[in-house]
Amino acid sequence: MFMIGAVMQQDLIHLEAIEVACADGFPHDEVADSERQVTPFAKAGFFSKMSFWWLNPLIKVGYKKPLEDKDMPLLGATDRAHNQYLMFMEELNGKKQSQSHAAPSFLWTIVSCHKRAILVSGFFALLKVLAVSTGPIILKEFINVSLGKGTFKYEGCVLAGLMFICKCCESLSQRQWYFRTRRLGLQVRSFLSAAIYKKQQKLSNAAKMKHSSGNIMNYVTVDAYQIGEFPYCFHQTWSTSVQLCIALAILYYAVGAAMISSLVIIIMIVLCNVPFARLQHKFKSKLMEAQDVRLKAMCESFVHMKVLKLYAWEAHFKKVIEGLREVEYKWLSAFQFRRAYNAFLFWSLPTWASAATFLTCYLLKIPLDASNVFTFVAALSLVQEPVRLIPDAIGFVIQAKVAFTRISNFLDAPELNGQVRKKSYVGIDYPVPIAMNSCSFSWDENTSNPTLKNINLVVKGGEKIAICGEVGSGKSTLLAAVLGEVPKTEGMIQVYGKIAYVSQNAWIQSGTVQDNILFGSSMDGERYHNTLMRCSLVKDIEMLPYGDCTQIGERGVHLSGGQKQRVQLARALYQNADIYLLDDPFSAVDAHTATSLFNEYVMSALSDKTVLLVTHQVDFLPVFDSILLMSDGEIIRSAPYQDLLTDCEKFIGLVNSHKDTIGAADLNKNIPPQSSKEVSKKVTDDIHGSRNTESVKPSQENQLIKKEERETGDAGFKPYMIYLRQHKGFLYFSLCMFFHIIFIAGQISQNSWMAANVQNPHVSTLKLVYVYIIIGVCTIFFLLSRFLLVVVLGIQSSRSLFSQLLNSLFRAPMSFFDSTPLGRVFSRVSSDLSLVDLDVPFSFVFSLGAIFNAYSNLGVLVVITWQVLFVSVPMIVLAIWLQRYYLASAKELMRINGTTKSALANHLGESISGAITIRAFQEEDRFFAKNLDLVDKNASPYFYNFAATEWLIQRLEIMSAAVLSFSAFVMALLPQGTFSPGFVGMALSYGLSLNISFVFSIQFQCNLANQIISVERVNQYMDIQSEAAEVVEENRPLPDWPQNGIVEIRDLKIRYRIDAPLVLHGITCKFEGGDKIGIVGRTGSGKTTLIGALFRLVEPAEGKIIIDSVDISTIGLHDLRSRLGIIPQDPTLFQGTIRYNLDPLGQFSDEQIWEVLDKCQLIEAVREKEQGLDSHVVEDGSNWSMGQRQLFCLGRALLRRCCILVLDEATASIDNATDAVLQKTIRTEFKHCTVITVAHRIPTVMDCDMVLAMSDGKVVEFEKPTKLMETEGSLFRELVKEYWSYTSNTNI
Length: 1292
What we know:
alpha/beta; six-stranded mixed sheet; disordered N terminus; ATP hydrolysis activity; P-loop_NTPase; transport; ABC-type transporter activity
């Protein structure tokens, strides 16, 4: 059975921490929750629970107005994820202690946690089976009464009353069975979601290779949900078998030995089903694998959409996803066709069974009369519905088994060994916070080729250690080793104290700036303001529309690279830790901000802290206590600056290459001497901002991240029409319905033929039977056609919907991705799409089929006993009203379920990408508590939704029981002989299945109404306003455009949204062809926006950009972007091979690629790998260092050879030596091209032909750098001065 290793050993210990986190981690949620009362279900009495009376208030509110999150009472304590998770952990730990030799089974632990609920719901299932089985027996007695064989006077009336009581019993027990198993499923789902989240917090690096973020997302949004559906079907499997046995006994009671033929047919059909079930299981597993691969690709594309647009690669990536979807369709159609054959077998069972039995009766000379024929028909129709559910139950069991295996494998995956950090006690000073003795570390736990080898390191309390070395030397891995992220293969490591960590690639949570800085700590106004000052954030926050309460979007998309880094630094500083691990945090900020940060942050705020700083900035090194020089995963020297400068050649080379890049002598000529104190003062004032004005806050509507949109109220037939309009959907659907009507008509005519002629002496038994059989066989062909058409309808609609959704998302502008959390997009392309693929087509056809069934049953009753109209007409009116009353709430509950699921997926996605940071700050418990809260918020609407379905069905069942009993009363009270016994039998056998057919009709309609919301949600993203055309046929540029590379910008004004203020205010300048242009300016001056405008990521509000006489707004986006080269700010690698990352479109030969790798200084790193160009690149390229990723991006630009190249702060993560080589490569390789460089490092632009200096979205200067250096008071001169002060002043 499935095992769980040391899954969640110490989780019980963390519990108080979680409860504390729940209490103070997310105060605003708590306030809202405290105002909501707990569900009335928790306090409901026996009668209220049995009749679902406790739900009345909520349904009443939902009928009056569209329900919202706040209208829903909280779940009861037992149903909350926290308690479920606890219960499971206690049980698991108990089992571990009792069976010390073997790991306890995961499945049986869940069963033993919930055995009482399973037994109680099982008791109700049994009760339901027994209540149903009384029907045919009462029917036989009733026919005997109509034949005049009654035993006492009012026997008919007593039987009618008895019928009503049995039907009510059946209804109460079935509703409790369904409700209790659904609730149990919800509890299991909540616990699994929590367990998966907890596991991903501890996942080892090796396990992350197998379980990508897309997979983990799928485990929660798809697999856990499918397991949650399983308990609902579990009792269906055995109760159907019991019901079959009882039905066979009734058949024997009705037709004697002829019942053997029915038994043979049932056995044959079940045996035929076995191979289908196996195939279904295989195809479902393959389908889930295919879905995982597609989701992973979609996930990667949407996360890096900006890069795809800049490189004009959308079409290629879209094509890849379409190819993966084709594979998915292959398994989807295989699975759905097997499902259809399966369903066909079981639906045709009554026809085959009755045909075989009546034929046997004829052969065995068993007389047929109204009594035994219709007892037989009634018994068969009782079995018919549960038997029809067998394929669905099998399907659910198969889906749950596949999902369970996947989740079990994930929960068994290897974990990080968290033994690196020792417990620290407040008030104790540790003389040696970090000690490593002969340590080797390897990401993939490979002892033969470790990532870091023979590391000896002792860091004393309060020491400042700098770590430097060339790209890929293991600097970031060393910090990861201190954090315990890299498996240790040998040696000893000890880390004491609280750690704060700043990653090289900024990880920002969606939420406000304040949330990101506080990171779960309580607000201390003075410390908070001091933190903002130290991190140079005061001015930036003043510029945001809501100050520090501005929503900054997913991954902080609304902040510049430098702002993100400073928010990270502020988060670390606010935590007031003992050890600070800073991974190259100054690479994304400009020189004067870096100086200020270094002074204010590292040297002042962290003066008494232990600091390990990875840096490429040689200028900071003199003030460090010690410098670790790394190369090829080893620390080659560890000594203070001066010592290294005297006797370490490698270090001297590093310093000299830095001096070369800043061209110290040239700078010095142009800068008058000035004390560093002055500069620092000026810099600090500039950054901190001396404005203290109160900005006017716009309304909450203007927040950058909008609340997730959902439809409200009754959408009418719109979503159904959307589904059926796809690719001949109406045609397939109409044919399905037509065939279904013929099938029902065939069944009625079969039974009418029997009823009319069973007592007719002029019709021989043989004729009676063979006409009956012929009609039955004809109807079966229509049944098969109907099932096959359902699958075709589903596949074609899914294909069409997906294609539109994919086109819409890939053509959406960047503003859509900036303002839409990806969790919303993922929940639509994963769980919503999964429902549309698998369930919607069957629900669609079954719900309309069930409506026809129900009304045909009622029709038969009415035709035979017209008096029933007195009861049935009011009942139908009441039923339709009840359904509307219910649907008003149910639809909103399903929609809220969708939006809360997006929030859950979002939080999970963020936690996966920020796992290292969360672990470094030891905030796992707070994030886990937030996850539990989101799981409950998602479970709540689902709980009320299925409870409301049972509420409705119970009321409808009682009503149909009343119609049946009334019909029986009429027959009992009217004089004998009014009705022929055949028609009495037919009427009551149809009447007995009336409530089943009505319930199924309502159930399928409710399922469909709930599932169609997925179509509605997918449709919301099918019509996103798209970017400009990819290609404008009548205005295509020449194949060799641009030839000269002249860029002319005329009065360019840009705003990000219609209602937003201008970001660029009328920029005008001209870059001559072949010139090297440097764009400089402080953080937030509009440099990156200008580049965005060049690639038309944002369209101008006014003005234009002309490249080689072509106005770029008049040509297609693909034509524009594919002709420009860029090395973007965030170096991005995709999962795949090195070759694929450099040349995804496959346009270049291996020789060309090797040549480029040589120019990018990557040839050695790639040759070391066994597979060369086919070496694997994992998700986000995390198996390559940040600098190497940047070099790969340079490689892409070298391969493309564009006439215009843009470098967007492209050398930010690279050491000076590599930077010098790169600059040289760019100068020689792009000698005749226009190169536009956005720079933080001033030396990068010193040898440019022209410099464009920007401030607050305006051009301040555009001139040759030498001329600007000579101009007193120029902004460029100021920036150079600041940079010079920061590089030359070693006492920083």
